[in-house]
Design brief:
The complex is a heterotetramer, with 2 copies of chain A and 2 copies of chain C. By secondary structure, chain A is an alpha+beta fold. Chain A has 3 helices and 6 strands. Chain A has a 3-stranded antiparallel beta sheet, with no helix packed on it. A two-stranded antiparallel sheet of chain A has the order 1-5. Chain C is mostly beta strands. The termini of chain C are far apart. Chains A and D meet through helix 1, helix 2 and helix 3 of A and strand 13 and strand 14 of D.
Chain lengths: 171, 171, 383, 383
Amino acid sequence: MKWFDDFFEGGTRRAAQSISRRSAISRIGKLLVGTAFLLPVLPFDRVGKAVAASKDKHDDDTTCEYWRYCALDGFLCTCCGGSISACPPGTEVSKVTWVGTCHNPNDGKDYLISYNDCCGAVTCGRCGCNYNIGERPGYRMGVHNDINWCMANSSNTYHCTVAAIVGLGES
Amino acid sequence: MKWFDDFFEGGTRRAAQSISRRSAISRIGKLLVGTAFLLPVLPFDRVGKAVAASKDKHDDDTTCEYWRYCALDGFLCTCCGGSISACPPGTEVSKVTWVGTCHNPNDGKDYLISYNDCCGAVTCGRCGCNYNIGERPGYRMGVHNDINWCMANSSNTYHCTVAAIVGLGES
Amino acid sequence: MLSANIRKFCFGAVMAVLAGPSLADLPVETVAVATTPPANRYRLYLSDMVISHFIDGKLLILDGESFKVLGNVSLGLTGHATLSPDRSEILVSTAYFTKLNRGERIAELDVYDATTLKLKAEISVPSKHAQSMPYRGAVRTSADGRFVFLQNATPATSVSIVDRVAGKFVTEVPTPGCWMIYPAQSVPNRFATLCGDGTMLTITLDAEGKPADRKKSAKFFDADEDALFVAGEQTGDNYTFLTFKGNVQVVNVAGEQAVAEKPWPLLTAADLKAGWRPGGYQPLALQEKSGRLYATMHPKGKEGSHKDPAKEIWGFDLATKKRVARVPGHHATVLAVTRGDEPKLYAVSTEKQTIAVFAASDKLKHLKTAGPFAETATQLDVQ
Amino acid sequence: MLSANIRKFCFGAVMAVLAGPSLADLPVETVAVATTPPANRYRLYLSDMVISHFIDGKLLILDGESFKVLGNVSLGLTGHATLSPDRSEILVSTAYFTKLNRGERIAELDVYDATTLKLKAEISVPSKHAQSMPYRGAVRTSADGRFVFLQNATPATSVSIVDRVAGKFVTEVPTPGCWMIYPAQSVPNRFATLCGDGTMLTITLDAEGKPADRKKSAKFFDADEDALFVAGEQTGDNYTFLTFKGNVQVVNVAGEQAVAEKPWPLLTAADLKAGWRPGGYQPLALQEKSGRLYATMHPKGKEGSHKDPAKEIWGFDLATKKRVARVPGHHATVLAVTRGDEPKLYAVSTEKQTIAVFAASDKLKHLKTAGPFAETATQLDVQ
């Protein structure tokens, strides 16, 4: 895709490297970049509670506190007919995406998580979650979450967000 | 308009006459036909409270209890940038409409009220009111309120409803 | 160095870039698109017009046991949904404006696969579909699924006939003063519609779907004195309706003319005195196998209370015509009951957008109340 | 006979049919379409993306004294609104799909008359507008109103230039790694944009609106250590921003290169110790005439708390750089203050969708809290 090349040849690769050199993110010991999409529905003050999440919710993928959602901002696909790594029926996987690294309390390891928006169907509107750790305005687009990551799909309707494991996080 | 002629040559004029002969409506002493549009937003249990409306709200045209709204179902244009007889800026007056007769407690007279939907702008969503006295399913279209009366306009978006005096009610 | 990770963030093809050899205990995953699980008899289809944004209506598909959301289908501008007879397709009669609230109006019958929820077909129709709240009967298929009947209102009423097999609009049948579509079961090319003069109009189509015959029934109800709720329950060629004042009216639509049975009352003399009436958008549910009828009831009913939420839900034995259950109403305005064995009754509150579920045995047993779902749902269909 | 009335109900031209000689004490009325009352300095423009139906965003126009709704303008799919310099037009950068959530994507700049709210012009633009929440700076006009600058994101960032006078799209200017539009006041053909490398990029256009010059400022902020909120306040050629950690950063965009002033802190040592930080979507308001700056503040701030609602609203004297007011925060995430004399400060809660209003004298005096308005509003503009 043309925009993909443009994008990485432009300012953003530089921005990314800048982040990698001295990042607020590195100081919190986890890679919590990006997040899916937009503002939360409600509540707006869930912000930052991931760190102090109750243990029993770490394993419930229909709650904001599920361990893979450490950098997710949007509606959970697990509440919308999808699963932790599958978009709901009738939607399509977003062409653009971003990753985060989340700590799995069950095995003590950090995993690299891909957050894909699911696009094309009416907005799901269920289980809105919002974490802004490491989030920055759109001049750091890769870590900006007030924007629709279905923007590059043939239909821009945002439905929900999945959180798939794509590898171990480096440490 | 073609549909207009069709409509009155069809079954509906007959239906209207049937209503006029022996109507549930006549028994309640007021003409409370139609109503604007659709279901209420909330609350759903405002139904029928017009009759027992508190006196001080009879004169506040931003409340459901205002005397002219005795047969109105929809969002009040007085809460949406319009007035009791003017659609909000940027909307257009519905081409199809219906009337009711409401009792004005201030002069003791019954007035014939025209309820026009205002169309074309995003739904207002404020001050939803709902009265179903005299309402009937769509087989009595002229007194059906679960339908969009912006249906015959160039844009079908329903915004709100006005209640204009068009004459004295006959008694 | 955690910072090394961040070089890897990218905007596309994450899988391709990142899914190297897995060193993780948990396996690497590929993001896919789900299909709905195999449908069971408790699958629910909840139609929501979303009144505050009613260009963006929504059909919510739910598992009626777990109340897990299985998926969503767009209903567009005051769209209406129905299922094909074999439950393999969801058919949506709706319209779009090219620029949201202006521009060109595009009307069509959208066909979705009920498992993948993918759009299978878009069949263009005249731009007349009834812009009403979701109600059963605003779109229906013929008993064999070949034809799809779409209620129109401009506000003049008519029915558009679509040939689902050929994938095209056939013709428009004027139905002045009549409303909603009640297909016959035994005669696929036939449907009836309720008329404001107290009759039913039966339309019989030819093999191509064009109207060959139209006949009105005898008058059997009075829309002024005791109107019929249009949301009826079908059992074969029979449709069962409630009246505003609490009578049960069965109409058989098998013949060229519909035939109405003698109505019977839900209410005892005492009930009548207390003013009990049915109310809501879909106030009746009928369970064929167990011979039960359920109704949303409120006391002190009067002219204009016919959409009031339920104070109680009543159950009746269709054989004896006696009340056999009486439970709190959960503000219900919409009822639906599952088919076959071990039925469950669902009661939707349009006000609270909750769904109460009952084991529909003789004594209705409240199992749970789930939700809220949707925003302004007024129609519930079962698998 | 009341029943005589009912023969008169009809579906069109009610006025024509019914408005005979008036026998009523109250006069017969004709339904018209209103225009907004003459704007005063307290008129408010509230942008709501409506996240749960975000193809149907809405700009709500309010009287900031009575809180009466004056009108609504459609924002479409993640649309952005701005006012023309003379306040006669509302400009909306948005997109539509021909079939709601599918079909062809149509992107345009829609121009509404700010008094009649009628659509005056639709100017086609490349289908790239930034599908972000409403933020000031996503669409702006040049100081003279001739050009309109539209923020794009595909996610590659660029700015579309529209010639409002000619009514056509001129060109697209790539602005990789930069975000939001800050027009100069004294040089109409110039705007700046904030970049992730801590600089500002200034674009100077030629007479036709094509980029003639682009220059980056010196680096003046660090997006990792202390990022800038993008919602800045303009006073002439200066833009005032807050940083995540509570510093005030003024940048002058008059020249070919933007020039940043030395930042100054909102926080005392004690404030810093308590972890006070600004938070929200539009956390800063600046009243030029009285020389006051207001900020939405929360204690115990940390990485990721930069959108937290206000626990308190603080007021500062720009001359002395000292805090002069400190009031409860009303959960505010958005601030705006009126221009000129007798200023009022408005504080929007994105969570509760209420608007608190204060007399913006030295000591902020809470006048009332109105609403809820809208669903998920994140931007407030004043007349």
